[in-house]
Specification:
This protein is of the alpha/beta class and 316 residues long. 33% of the residues lie in helices and 25% in strands. Strand 9, helix 7 and strand 10 form a beta-alpha-beta unit. The protein is globular and about 60 Å long. The chain has a nine-stranded mixed sheet with strand order 1-6-2-7-12-8-11-9-10, sandwiched between helices. Helix 1 runs antiparallel to helix 8. It is built from eleven helices and twelve strands.
Length: 316
Amino acid sequence: MSMSFKGLKTATAAVLGVVMLFSAAACGTTDEATSSSSDGGSTDSATISSYDVSSVKKDDAIASLLPESVTKDGKLTIGTNPSYAPAEFLDSDGKTQIGYDMDLARAMGNVFGLDTEIVSSNFDTIIPAVGSKYDLGIAAFTITPDRMESVDFVSYFTAGMAYAVKKGNPNKVDENDLCGLKVAVETGTVEEEAINKTAKQCKADGKKDIEIQSSKQQTDATTAVVTGKADVFFADSPVVGYAIAQTEGQLEQLGKDFDSVPNAIAIKKGDSATVEAVQKAMQKLMDDGTYDKILKHWGVESGALKTAEVNPNVEG
């Protein structure tokens, strides 16, 4: 996600299948955890099995950097929102969090020699709880100046924003003029902030209002377009691409990706020890090839970074 304001990022059986898949993913709104220090993922995924990170071993030097506040319970507790495939979503069992973010999280837990406990929560509640309820937040967070006031970040991926509409764009949606349309987004995302600003501009210009449909789960936003309740949804480019693939031709991307910026791991503000440990752990995964293998496994290697950076500069 980024801070751009461009433009402001058998059929019945197929629809039912999509809605059932999305409903399963949407189960992750409550605080539930799964624990694994070397979880290779389930063998019966709704889409694809997790990458096996069991070969990733503890790095004593990196692990020693973590403060006791993180290590005392033997767990690396991570807050996520599992409705943002392919970054994080629920397996077919309705509770196991999978996706490239989750594979990276478990691999990093292995580097630290800790069990990785992943807790499913609503997206907009994660950052406020980092440092208290969660050791880290990993949920495809885009780095923004506002978020950096609350947490520190370590970058690990880059993604743009994109729009998706029904196949063939039957409502003739113009990405450069969304005034008067029904636009679906996930609550708390940069896309929601961007579309809110666009809506204000529509009103200032005397144009028709945008009806913003903000959902706690990205899957609900996607389903809204599939079922015709919304004209367009707005999300990170990997999420848009994955949704298009999973809806079996019912959706298409509107225009091109735009404004790629880093996604990052959220860490308690001022916790320099954990920040250093996370940066070194992620860099180790990048350097030893594990990172590239995970991204390739999920088909998102185009978003790979070479360097994990602490609080990289981004435009507001």
